[in-house]
Each structure stands twice: as C-alpha cells, then as structure tokens.
Design a protein that fits this description.
Blueprint: H1 3-26, H2 36-40, E1 56-61, E2 68-72, E3 78-82, H3 85-112, H4 116-119, H5 124-132, H6 135-148, H7 152-173, H8 181-186, H9 195-210, H10 214-225, H11 227-234, H12 278-281, H13 283-294, H14 298-304, E4 311-317, E5 328-336, E6 344-350, E7 356-361, E8 368-372, E9 376-382, E10 388-394, E11 400-403, E12 406-409, E13 411-417, E14 425-431, E15 451-457, H15 466-474, H16 478-484, E16 493-499, E17 504-509, E18 513-515, E19 532-533, E20 541-544, E21 553-554, E22 560-563, H17 576-579, H18 587-598, H19 604-611, H20 617-631, H21 638-648, H22 659-683, H23 691-700, H24 718-737, H25 747-750, E23 751-755, E24 766-770, E25 786-787, E26 790-791, E27 794-796, E28 798-800, E29 803-807, E30 815-817, H26 833-839, E31 844-845, H27 853-859, E32 864-870
Parallel strand pairs: 1-32, 3-6, 10-19, 23-27
Antiparallel strand pairs: 2-3, 2-32, 4-5, 4-22, 5-28, 5-29, 6-7, 7-8, 8-9, 9-16, 10-15, 11-12, 13-14, 16-17, 17-21, 18-20, 23-24, 25-26, 29-30, 30-31
Helix pairs in contact: 3-7, 3-9, 6-9, 10-11, 10-13, 15-16, 20-21, 20-23, 20-24, 22-24
Length: about 850
C-alpha cells in the first residue's frame, strides 16, 4: 500500500468517524433539545410541516351528522357550510387545530400548569404559579356541573363544545407527521383536546384582562404620599373622563361635545397613619417585598410594569348620523402583538337556517368573540371593573391561619405536574376562605415569614360566559342580545352592539363584587383598591351587582356610543366609585367623542379614517402651554427657536416622519418627570401620576406645589418646570440623534412596531417598522422613549389586535383585518399576509353574503376545499 492510498484510507476513515459521531450526536437529546436527526431527516421532520392547504381533500369521521364543506378564500379564511350547528362546530374545531394548534396547546398548558411536560423542569415554578390561580380547577368544576345540569341551554353549549373538541382531535389524530416546526424542534407530541381545555380559555382571557397587583402599589402610594396627596393625584374621578355610558351625568372637568345629527334627522333612536396589625405595621415594606417576589416570574413582572397598555376602542353610530340611515359599528381590541396573533377569522353558514356568522374567534373556543350575524353586530373593549382582591392574614403555623380572631385550617390542594424527562412532581398548596395562598411560593424576608397573602378573584367560580357568546349568535334584536349578556361573569367588557332595525346599545358587564367596607382603617380607600386585612374579616364580598343594576344605554339621544376603557358611568350612577376600578387616562375616549359628535352622514370610509386616526388629544391640550412657556424666553438659542417654529405650526398628528412628534413626546415626558421625580427623591417612590392629572394641574393650578422642585431653594411654577423639561429633553435628543438639526429627529426612528413569534424564536418574527401614533391616539402603539432623563429606542409590541367595521345597511360591505394571518405555520403564505394590509391601513372583504359555495367561488379566489363527510359505522 503506497503512501497515497494510506492518505485516502485515512481521510475516508476520518470522514466515516465524523459521520458516525454526527449520527450518534443527532440521535441523543440534550435537555429540552430533542434528537436532531429526526428533526432534520428528509421526508419527515421540518420537511413535512404543511405550509399550504390541499386544493381539494375529503375526510371521513363518524362524529359528523352530515356533510360539511370548508372553502378557504385568498387569505385562508375558512367559510364553513353545513346543514346543522353541531357539524359547523366540528368543522371549526378542525380549522382551528389545522391553523393554530401550537397556540391552542401553549395557552392550555399555561393555564393548566403543564408547560413542564413540554419543556422540562425549567418551567416547573411557572407551572406552580399558574396552578395557584386555579383556572384549571374551576374549569373542571364547571364541566362537572355542566354534565349534571338539566338546563337545556347548558346542555346545548356542552354538546357544541364536545363536537368542537371532536373536530380538533380529528386534526390531531390525522396529522402525526405534520407537527408544527416548534414542536418538532422540542420533540413534543400534542395530546388530545378536551372540553376542560376549552373552558379554561375563559379563565385565561379573564386573567389577561383582570389579574394584577395594583392594589399593592396603591397601598404603597398611600403610605408614601399620605391620603390627601394620594387623593389629589390618584383619586376618583380622574380628570377629563367622558363616561362610557352617557345617561348618568357628566363629571365637572369636561363636557360631552354636542352631537350633530343628519340634517333631516329628528335626533331620536404618609406613613403617619396608625397601624392596626402586624402586616399593616410593615405594610409598605412587605407590599414591596411581595411584588419583588412576584417579579421573579416573567409573566407576572410584565403585569407589574407593563410594556404596553391593554385597551381597546369600540363605537356604534345610529342611523340618524349615517349616510345609509342604519347603524355603523367599529371595534379594535388593543392587545399584545405576536405571530400568530390572538384572533382567527371564520365564517359559519348553516344552510338549513338563517344562521350566518362572521367573526374573530379565539382558537380553542367555538364561539364568536366580535363580529356580526344577519341581524346584529357587536364588539368589545375592557370595562374598568375591579374583579380581584388581595387579603393578608396572620399565619399561625403550617396548617392554620387567623380569620376573624379564630384559628382556621387551610384548605389543601394537591396537583400532579408532569415533567418532561422526569417523574411527575406533586405540588401541594394552601387556600384560605378567600382563595389560594401565594406567599408560600415566593421568598420574603424573615421578618414577614408569618404573614400570609391570598387572592380572591371572580374567575375562581363556576361560570358560563360562553352562553353569552352563544346567545349573540342567535339573537334577532338588541333586546335578545342584551339579555344574553347576563351570562358574562369573569370577562369584564364594554359591549357595543346594534341591529338591522336601527337600534344601538352599550353594555358594560361582568360579575362586579359588592364589598363590605365597614370598619376599615382610615388610610384604606375601600372598593377593593388596596389589600384587605383578612384576619379581621375586612372587605368581604357580600354579593355581586345585579345585572339589571349595571349601567346600560340603548338608543341614546346623542346618536352614538363609544368606549375606550375610560371610566364607566357618571356621577349620577349610585355609588359610582364602586364600579369604576380604574380605566385608561381617557384621551382616546375624548377624541372619539369629538369625532363622533361633530360628524354626521358617516360612511364606511369615515369609519376607516377614524380607526386610523393619529391625532393626539394629549398634544392638542399640552402643546399650547409648552409653546407659551418657550415664547416667554426673550433670547432663544437657535435650537430653541427651531423647536418653537416646528411646534407652533404643528397639527398634532403623530406621524413617524415628524420631528414635531418626537420633540413633543420627549419634552412632555421630561415635563412629567420634572414635576414629580423630585418628590419621589424626597418621599420615596410612588406611581407616576397620569397625563390627565398633569394636564389638570397645567390648566387649573399653575402654581401647584407639585411644580416646585423641593431640592432647590427657589419656588418653581408650571412654566419654569416646562422650561426645565425643555432643557433636559433637548439635551437628550441631541445626544441620541447626534445632531442639533431637528429635521433628523424622526419619531419613527425611535418608535417602531414589531411582531414577534409567539415563542420569541428569532427569524420567525416580522419587523421592526417605523411607527406612527402613540398610546393616546385612536390608532395606538406603545413605547417608552424617555427613561432616566435619556432618549431611548422603543419597539411597540402591542396595539390593535383586529379591526372590524360592520355596515348594518348591507352586511356584505362589512370589513375586517388582523395584524398577522390565519396560520401559525411560519412557511405558510397566510402566516403574516394580513399584517401587510394592517400596516397599510387596509381591510379585506368578508364575503358575508356568500351564503352558498357557488356564490363564494364567483366572488373570490377559493384556494382550498375540504369536505368533511360522515363515516358510517
């Protein structure tokens, strides 16, 4: 054997050894990472993930009553035709699983506390925290009661859910080799769906909107500021609030603009407080320590310091203000953005009846959230109800705590948590008479080791919220629709609705607790706004506000209704402060009321313009004061003069290309900082007061004590504080942009929009894009661009999660769009195709009146047909 042959053999042996090593490596799992050989194997693995729908397919299943046809339009939206409701729900379940099974699985795992089964022990503490919320526990009890109930409505909804579950499981059982990319990477299976998975979604959505820790922050604020100062900065009512429901009076600081009907219309249709318990004695420190412990869980830290504000817009306009003479309705719910997005669009047509529903659905739930039928349309925003309270107790030992002066044993729960690659873990937790105990899961200083904190939450009950949505599908007028709303319990919603007869309405609704606030200490503000002393029996829930006693408006004289998360009712509503649990700062509501009151003969194009509106009421109210303060400077620098010239001619439209938008937002932030941060340095941290509070002080109290900088020997006022904010903001802007040429200070360079993958996987998100708008524009996006006196880049990850426009004069004119696509498969053409429309401010047709497949094929490009047929046993 010559030398060259040896070299060849050596090289071949080396290559073979490398190949063998690679085969071994690719067959071994590493922690949560699976054997990559299976993942990358041609013909399976990622190569077999479906990215498009079959052009034609037939599937048989014994759970069907009759044939169902699913036609996908050019955006992949399923139009489902069936002769009966049960089969429609079966088909919808199949479509949801086909498009969004990864999203469905992750949400149920999060709510039920089984993420560890997917990714291993790294998720164990998160699972325990989620189990503590008891969402799965109460969903399970709800299903047990459903099965035992003799109520025909409940039995009907149970049947629908079971048919939907069967459709989901048909997809899961027939697509073993087509698992989503993310699950193939994790080498994870998707277990069958069940009714409890669907029921737990109501608890999950309630958590998204109502779970929080602001009670502790308010407590800390009162202890820091004293009750009088707290009331001045954070008391009820907040300034400039136009209530959701107009028929209970107006607050003093603002009036509703007069409404303009059509010309031919008749205008009808300190810490110095005495402490009274061990917890109260250390309350501020303990509250902060508790929040610190909660912050160890990333999803909870986001609730304490939210990156974006959860909100929404809706409005409905009566025919006396529209061109057609019949109502128009709009809805855009503001949630976190992701790919896939929160909502899935679908169109259900029962061919043997008049049932025709187009709506956005939550994948995992067979009922429409926002949309319309042949008779009605509706859309929601979050209502500012407080549906959660926190209680503190003196713990006696591991088995007992003090309640009303007596030792009471804990209720003990035990849950088995499956863990990938390990044995299941048994998790035991305690509950008081109010709810689950959270202090056992987080670490607190030894000083507080005998203190106990538990939570009481409306969602920790048997609830039938889905009956409301089912009622919406079948209602024939606003009265039947409103009657169905009584079933909403754990979802606090402002529901705007209208019908084809010309009626409109607004219903804020949920199970709103009535608290016994007698015998509270003088520092406590009541109404569930701060933690209660559970050992003393404070803050007991003695009932719920009756449905008929909640505020509502149908066919108001003003001819329109709108909500944007502002306070719910005006001063004439009985005990009005008890039903207003907070709410937004109110700028979007002010803008919407101005636009809707001042206009008439509205059209769909007008609705598009309003949904995309970028006017800032905050800028419109603050900028004149900023300009006037700057005008008083007799010798302006060139930069100050440039800023003055830019703002004096500005129209307050928040465009990404606008330097004025940048200057205003940073200057206004610096003004807010300059007003309150010196007091925080002196007193200790407290929550930053709202823009509306600063606006009120700016307009009504120019010499307010809050404008005085307590760290200086002179007494500052509004204008000197504005100018100090200008100095700080211009310095920060010049530093960030690297130039004093204000034309380079584009808002879209520091305020951008991004749409991350649901799991945050790099390469599967879209963006960032230069953004328009701010948190207070009707078309909102959320960034914090001024932190610690410095300008910083911000990426908004939240805003409108859908846009819907319903035309009651012709439902076929109705439009919608979601900022993602129908599919969760990243290689699908429908992964983010609607996002392109969304970013351009465009919509797509719903083809609502395509009540048979032939009509749909004439009107649109049908890209897929799936026929589900009954399999004979």
């Amino acid at each position: 054997m010559n030398q060259d042959q040896k070299k060849v053999i050596f090289k071949s042996s080396g290559s073979l050894a490398i190949c063998i090593c690679m085969m071994v490596v690719l067959s071994i799992p590493f922690g949560m990472i699976p054997p990559l050989g299976n993942f990358l194997l041609p013909g399976t693995g990622i190569w077999d993930v479906p990215d498009n729908y079959a052009s034609y397919e037939e599937i048989y299943d014994e759970n069907l009553n009759d044939e169902v046809k699913i036609y996908r339009d050019e955006f992949g939206v399923p139009h489902i035709y069936g002769s009966n409701e049960e089969d429609l729900m079966f088909a919808l379940g199949y479509c949801h699983a086909q498009d969004r099974i990864i999203q469905m699985d992750l949400i149920r795992r999060s709510s039920r506390g089984t993420l560890s089964e997917l990714v291993g022990s790294s998720a164990l503490e998160t699972d325990k925290f989620n189990i503590l919320k008891m969402e799965a526990y109460w969903a399970n009890l709800t299903y047990i009661e459903m099965k035992a109930s003799k109520d025909p409505q409940i039995q009907n909804i149970r049947t629908i859910m079971e048919k939907y579950v069967a459709g989901v499981n048909l997809y899961i059982s027939t697509s073993d080799n087509a698992r989503p990319f993310e699950y193939q990477f994790l080498d994870a299976e998707i277990s069958p769906w069940d009714v409890i998975d669907t029921l737990v979604y109501a608890k999950y959505i309630s958590e998204y909107f109502t779970w929080g820790y602001s009670d502790f922050q308010r407590y800390s604020d009162v202890m820091t500021l004293g009750k009088d100062n707290y009331t001045e900065l954070f008391g009820f009512p907040a300034p400039y609030q136009i209530p959701v429901v107009p028929n209970y009076g107006e607050f003093d600081t603002i009036s509703v603009p007069p409404s303009l009907p059509n010309p031919s219309s008749d205008s009808t249709p300190a810490s110095s407080y005495a402490q009274d318990s061990k917890f109260a004695q250390f309350s501020k420190e303990f509250a902060n320590e508790f929040l610190k412990g909660i912050s160890q869980f990333p999803q909870e830290a986001e609730r304490i310091n939210p990156e974006y504000i959860i909100g929404s817009n809706n409005w409905v306009i009566s025919g006396n203000k529209t061109e057609s003479g019949l109502p128009l309705l709009c809805n855009d719910m503001h949630l976190g953005w992701s790919l896939p997005g929160m909502w899935h669009e679908a169109h259900l047509i029962e061919t043997d009846s008049d049932l025709n529903v187009y709506a956005v659905f939550l994948p995992g739930v067979p009922l429409p959230v926002a949309g319309h039928t042949n008779y009605l349309g509706w859309g929601e925003t979050i209502a500012a109800f407080d549906m959660q309270d926190w209680y503190y107790y003196n713990g006696i030992n591991e088995t007992h705590y003090e309640y009303k002066g007596e030792p009471i044993p804990y209720e003990v729960h035990e849950v088995l948590i499956p863990v990938k690659g390990n044995d299941p873990v048994s998790y035991r937790f305690n509950a008081t008479v109010h709810g689950p105990v959270f202090t056992n899961l987080i670490s607190v200083p030894e000083l507080f080791e005998d203190s106990v904190i538990a939570c009481k939450w409306v969602s920790q009950n048997i609830t039938y919220d889905y009956l409301a949505l089912y009622g919406y599908m079948h209602a024939k007028d606003v009265h039947e629709f409103d009657e169905a709303s009584k079933f909403f319990a754990c979802l606090p919603l402002n529901i705007a609705f209208g019908d084809v007869e010309g009626n409109i309405g607004m219903r804020p609704n949920a199970k709103v607790p009535i608290r016994n606030d007698s015998n509270l200490p003088d520092w406590h503000i009541g109404n569930g706004r701060m933690p209660y002393n559970g050992s003393k029996g404070e803050g007991e829930w003695i009932g719920y506000v009756d449905f008929d006693d909640l505020p509502v408006s149908i066919n108001p004289e003003q001819g329109y209704l709108t909500s944007a998360n502002q306070q719910i009712a005006g001063p004439d509503f009985p005990n009005v402060d008890s039903i207003n649990g907070g709410g937004s700062v109110g700028y979007r509501a002010r803008r919407l009321n101005t636009l809707l009151a001042s206009g008439n003969e509205f059209t769909i194009n007008d609705m598009k313009e309003i949904q995309l509106d970028l006017y800032s009421p905050r800028a419109g109210n603050f900028t004149p004061y900023l300009i006037n303060a700057l005008a008083s400077v007799t010798e302006k620098t060139k930069l100050q003069q440039d800023v003055y010239d830019e703002l004096v001619s500005w129209d307050y439209i928040m465009l990404g290309s606008s330097p004025a938008t940048t200057i205003f937002n940073i200057w206004n932030d610096a003004y807010l900082h300059s007003t309150f941060y010196d007091d925080m340095d002196l007193r200790g941290d407290f929550s930053t007061p709202s823009w509306a509070v600063l606006e009120y002080l700016t307009k009504e109290e120019p010499n307010s004590k809050w404008f005085d900088n307590v760290s200086t020997s002179i007494e500052e006022n509004r204008d000197s504080t504005i100018l100090y904010g200008l100095e700080k903001s211009l310095s920060a802007l010049e530093k960030y942009y690297g130039t004093d040429d204000i034309s380079a200070w584009k808002w879209g360079d520091i305020h951008q929009l991004t749409f991350d993958h649901l799991l945050g996987l790099p390469g599967l998100g879209v963006g960032p894009f230069p953004g328009n708008g701010t948190s207070v524009t009707v078309n909102p996006s959320y960034t914090q661009n001024f932190v610690n006196w410095e300008v910083r880049y911000g990426a908004s990850r939240g805003g409108p999660s859908e846009r819907i426009i319903v035309d009651f004069s012709n439902m076929n004119n109705s439009l919608s769009v979601i900022p993602s696509g129908e599919s969760a498969i990243s290689s699908s053409e429908h992964y983010a195709d609607q996002l392109t429309l969304f970013l351009r401010g465009e919509f797509h047709n719903q083809y609502f009146k395509a009540e048979d497949p032939d009509t749909l094929e004439k009107w649109c490009n049908v890209e897929s047909i799936l026929v589900l047929k009954k399999e004979e046993k």
